Fold 2-dehydropantoate 2-reductase.
Amino acid sequence: MNVTILGAGAMGSLFGGLLAAQGHTVELLDVNERHIGEIQRAGLTLDTDQGSQNMRVKACRPEQGTTPPDWLIVFTKTLHTDSALRAAQHLIGPHTCVLSLQNGLGNVEKLQAFVPRERIAIGVTTVPADMKGPGHVQSHGNGHSRFMSADGQRNPALVQLAADFNQAGLSCELDDQVLAAIWRKVAFNAALNGICAVTGSTVGQLGQHPDTRALVHRTSQEVIDVARAAGVLVDADGVHHDLDHAMEHHVHHKPSMLQDLLARRPTEVDAINGQVRAHGERLGVPTPCVSTLHTLVKQMEATAS
C-alpha cells in the first residue's frame, strides 16, 4: 500500500511510522521544516509501549510530494485543510482515497472540493501521540480509531485499510455509526477545550470547582442536544463519564486549544464550537454555553494576532 500522510505532526507521524514499519510505502507531508529536516537527516523515532524504533521514511513539504498514493490520510488541523489539500492536490490520482481523522465537524464537505464523496472516509481516533522533538514522537497508552466511508459503503479498499491499521498496531474498526463517535468527541472537546482555553486552566483544575465542573457538563449537553436534533444519537452517559474521568485523571493536561492560544496560534474552535453553534442555529437548538465559548476564543485569537 502507498500511503501519504498530510499533516505529519505527532499523530500523523505515528500513523505513518507504524505503517512504514510494516513495509508500506509512506510519505510524510508537513510544513514544519525542523521536523521534516530531522526525519530526512536521521529518520523518524517512535517511542511506544512496545519500545523505541527508528525508521527511514520519506518526508517533505506538501508541494514536494511525488507519488499519488492509494490512501491520503489527513491529519492537518481543520483550519489548514483547504490550503494543505491545495498544496497536495497534484497527488490526488483518479483512484486515490482520502481518510480524515481530524477533529471537529464539516471535514467531509471540505474534502469533497478535492475528491468525490465515494472516495472519502471519515472517522475519529483516540490514539495518544505527542511530539518529543523534531523527528521524535511518543505514544503511550491505549487508543482506538473508528471510520467509515462517507457514502456509507464498505468498499474493498476501506476494508483493507482497516486490516492494515490493525496489523500495524493501530487498533481500529469500521463503524457504520461513526458519526455518533465524531459528535461524542466534539461534545467532549467543545467543553474541555473551550473552557480550558478561556480560563487558562488545566483539565484537572476545572474539576476542582463544582460550578465549573457543572459548566463543563452543561456545555457538553448542548452539543449532545444538537446532535440528537440532527438525527445522531450520542451516548450522553458515556460523554459525561469521559468528562469526569478526564477531570479526575488528566489533571495536568492542557488541551490543544489552550496550547494554541498560549503559542499565539489560531485554534480549531470554528470546527468544534463554531460548527455546533451553526448546527444549533439551523435546527433551533439553543447553545448559549457553546456559543459564548466560541465568541470568547475568537476574541482571544484576534487579540493575540
